[in-house]
Write a structure and sequence with these properties.
single chain; 2 domains; elongated
């Protein structure tokens, strides 16, 4: 509802515009309507912003007078939004399904299966034609496939271990923590 005018309001008064787009939009809209002397309606406010040359000055003054409350509203809206994101992330971590936890072991099994097939294929190819090993396309393909799959497997194993540590309640140091602790230990 208030999204139609929040950007226009934000040009003159950024806090008002941000708060207008949040959960307290109706209350902020009422303040704006009162200052502009129009109905508490986005269309009426939008019309006043276009027709009243002093409208933007009035919005700036309103923002200055209510800056503390507006900042609180914006912070509360952002906190509520972040809480919802965190709630969703926690639910995803607790859900244990094939697509969540099964793909990491799956890539590991595929990697092991491919290594076995490549060893058999390599042995067969070298036995039939030993010069194939010197073919850069043959060796390049094998190297890139192993590097790509190994990288994916390594990252996934590390992340799976980290996920299990978090679920077990252990503190997992971040990369910055690890780098800082190494720098402190050296100095």
């Amino acid at each position: 509802m208030w999204d139609t005018i929040k950007d226009t309001v934000a040009k003159a008064a950024p806090l008002l515009g941000t708060a207008l787009g949040g959960p307290a939009g109706g209350a902020v809209g009422g303040l704006i309507a009162n200052v502009l002397g129009v109905d508490n309606d986005p269309e009426a406010i939008g019309h006043a912003l276009k027709s009243d040359p002093d409208a933007f000055l009035k919005l700036q003054q309103l923002e200055k007078e209510h800056e503390r409350e507006l900042r609180r509203m914006v912070i509360e809206a952002e906190t509520a939004q972040q809480a919802e994101v965190n709630k969703t992330m926690r639910a995803e971590l607790q859900a244990d399904g094939t697509f969540k936890s099964g793909w990491r072991p799956f890539i590991g099994w595929i990697f092991g299966f491919c290594i076995g097939l490549f060893l058999v294929a390599l042995a067969t190819a070298v036995f039939r034609e030993p010069t194939i090993v010197s073919n850069p396309e043959f060796t390049g393909m094998i190297v890139w496939l192993f590097v790509a799959m190994g990288t994916v497997l390594g990252v996934n194993l590390k992340e799976r271990t980290k996920s299990k540590q978090v679920i077990a309640g252990q503190q997992v140091p971040t990369l910055i923590d690890q780098l800082f602790s190494r720098g402190v230990n050296k100095g």
